Amino acid sequence: MKTYIEERAVAIANYIIDHNATVRQTAKKFGISKSTVHKDITDRAEKIDPELAMSVRKVLEVNKAERHIRGGMATREKYLKKKM
After folding, report:
1. Tell me: the pLDDT tens digits for 15-31?
2. How many angstroms separate the CA atoms of 18 and 3, rounded?
3. Tens-place pLDDT, residues 30-79
4. The pLDDT of residue 83 is above 80
5. DSSP assignment string, 34-77
6. Whether the predicted model's global pTM rises above the 0.85 cut
7. Which of 25, 57, 81, 82 has CB 3.0 to 4.6 Å from 21, enough for a Cys bridge?
8. Cβ(13)–Cβ(41) below 8 Å
9. Among residues 63, 64, 61, 41, which one has the least CA distance to residue 52?
């Protein structure tokens, strides 16, 4: 694996942990696709630093559990703006 890819994977993992960021937010911040973020977290970070990968996975599991709530809130706000 190339050095810059390893560095990016670690930077992405640290960003997600520090900011409780979603995959989508992280992809936007780093200017890469969600697929690349996911690949960096699941495969590459696991090989580089398993403890870091486990910490990231915990954050993402919480985000996944809460995403239906965030989606509902976004839809509610959308329709509240339309009423006005």
Report:
1. 999 999 999 999 999 99
2. 22
3. 999 999 999 999 999 999 999 999 999 999 999 888 878 888 888 888 88
4. no
5. HHHHHHIIIIIHHHH-HHHHHHHHHHHHHHHHHHHHHHHHHHHH
6. no
7. 25
8. yes
9. 41
φ/ψ region of 32 (left if φ > 0, alpha if ψ in -120 to 50, else beta) reads beta
Which tokens go with 9? Answer: 């994977």
Q: Which two tokens stand for residue 78?
A: 């959308």
- Which residue carries 């006005």 as its tokens? 84
pLDDT category of residue 84 using cuts at 50, 70 and 90: low
The two structure tokens encoding residue 50 = 């398993």
State both tokens at 4.
Answer: 């810059």
- How far, in Å, CA of 58 to CA of 10, rounded? 16
Question: In this structure, what token pair is assigned to residue 21?
Answer: 């960021």
